[in-house]
Amino acid sequence: MQSDGYTLSDSFVRVGVKSGGCSGLSYDLKFDNALGEDDKLFEDNDVRIVVDKKSFLYLVGTTLEYSGGLNGKGFVFNNPNANRTCGCGESFSL
User: Fold this and answer.
1) What is the pLDDT of residues 48-92, one digit of tens each?
2) CA–CA separation, 49 and 66 (whole Å)
3) H helices of the chain, where?
4) Is the separation of the CB atoms in 29 and 17 below 8 Å?
């Protein structure tokens, strides 16, 4: 976060959903510091996470975990709403 010019005190991780990917929808993770009117704010372990209203509908019940296993390091989305996911786990459909 700091290397991208953001500070933990006034910035957050924005989680969203956008069109694209081999299954139709893909996850979007980025740092941000502009809170929108329809954003939902969550906090866990002193990290603020923001989801816009439209993406929230696709992400209800989703857990975001960090995996450091043998298959690679990165964030893993466990979305109970997804009917189908691609092999890489970065896109899904409902």
Assistant:
1) 999 999 999 889 998 888 878 776 677 788 888 887 666 555 666
2) 14
3) 53-59
4) no
Please write down the long-range contacts of 69-77, taking CB distance under 8 Å and 24 or more positions apart.
75/29, 77/27
Domains in the chain, number: 1
Q: What is the CATH number of the domain that holds 29?
A: 2.60.300.12
CA 41 – CA 10 distance, rounded (Å): 13
Query: CA 13, CA 77: separation in Å to the nearest integer?
Result: 14
Q: Which residues fall within 8 angstroms of residue 59, CB to CB, at 6 or more apart?
A: 15, 17, 51, 79, 81
Residue 89 structural domain: 2-93
Number of Cβ atoms within 10 Å of the Cβ of 18: 12
> Whole-model pTM?
0.78
What gap in Å lies between CA 50 and CA 31, rounded to an integer? 10
